[in-house]
Amino acid sequence: MGLLALLGAIPSLSLVKIDKSVTVNVTGKDNNVAINGKKITDPKEKAKILEAINAENYLGIAHDSYPHNIIHEDLQDSFSTIKEAAVGSKDLNFLDKYTNKKYMKAIFMARAGHKAMLSNNNKYKRGLISKLILQLDKKFPKDGKKMLNLMTAKYFDSLIIPTLIELEKFPNTDKNFNKYLESLLHFFPTAVFVNNDTNNRIIFREISKRLGIENIPYIIVHALGDENIKKVDDAIPILQQEYQIIISHEYFCSDMGIKGRNTKIEEISTD
Predict the structure, then answer these.
(1) Which of 81-90, 121-130, 193-202 ranks highest by mean pLDDT?
(2) pLDDT at position 26, please?
(3) In sequence order, what E strands does the chain have?
(4) What DSSP state is assigned to residue 153?
(5) 195 in a structural domain
(6) pLDDT above 90 covers what percent of the chain?
């Protein structure tokens, strides 16, 4: 039984029809459970609720219809930031109008992770971010981290939403936009994201793929942290042996205070 159905089956909660926000607080070493401030005292009901939470892998946001939120006391201070990410955003509402349900769930979760990165709450910040990213990756192993990459690199603001605005002028907006978003997740022609799982061979391969495409003015290689920046530096001499390219770098500090770098690669025209 899913969490919503389970909560609706508890008579004392009067939540048979759940059409408003339901907040589940889990507190203390004994994982005490309260629903909208009402403590669950029945051990069997409490055990079932905790089992449902673990089974559905919730943390901070819901991933079905978003009517409820699961919060542990350690995350309470950060929750307002997470909730703001999941509801009330003009851009997210606009995306939700046209984006298919699967992608929209991933966008909500990626936005929550990004909002956590932007939070000023340093006490629980790193643990919260790690859990949100783990949840995102588990729920969407193929596209979850890609969606977060697009979010943190501000491609939603600079590319995806402006593209949707243009597509809205024509028929079949939802179909065309979802096709566009799917293609972007499958292969982003002007960007490569370097993470802890990316090695030099993958960097060289992904950049080479893009350099071989006509009418691509440049490629941006996004790297976060000294180790990932070094991987890009190690790949550049190999690329320079194969291609005539111009390299430029833009350094920045990430939302988490980590050193980052965007490396711009432009192929020199031989015409």
Answers:
(1) 193-202
(2) 65
(3) 22-27, 32-35, 38-39, 68-72, 191-194, 219-224, 245-253, 259-267
(4) T
(5) yes
(6) 36
Asked if residue 110 and residue 49 are part of one domain, the reply reads no
E strands, 98-214, are: 191-194
Q: Identify whether the C-beta of residue 188 lies closer than 8 Å to the C-beta of residue 209.
A: no
**Domain boundary residue among 134, 167, 186?**
186
CB 202 within 8 A of CB 232: no
pTM of model > 0.90: no
Could you tell me if 95 and 83 lie in one domain? yes
My answer on whether 257 and 204 are in the same domain is yes
**Listed residue (141, 265, 249, 252) closest to 206, CA to CA:** 265
Report CA 236 to chain centroid distance, whole Å. 29
Per-residue confidence (pLDDT) for residue 20, from 0 to 100: 43
The length of the chain is 271
DSSP letter for 156, please: I
d(CA 63, CA 60): 10
Q: Which two tokens stand for residue 61?
A: 């946001």
Per-residue pLDDT at 112 exceeds 70: yes
CA proximity to 65, closest of 129, 10, 128, 18: 18
Q: How many domains does the chain have?
A: 3
User: How many whole angstroms separate alpha carbon 271 and alpha carbon 118?
Assistant: 45
| DSSP state at residue 94 | H
Phi-psi region of 249 (alpha: psi -120 to 50; beta: other; left: phi over 0): beta
Query: Which one, of 255, 23, 21, 59, lies nearest residue 139 by Cα?
Result: 59
DSSP character at residue 7: H
CB-side neighbour CA atoms (13 Å) of 135: 26
User: Does residue 137 belong to any structural domain of this protein?
Assistant: yes
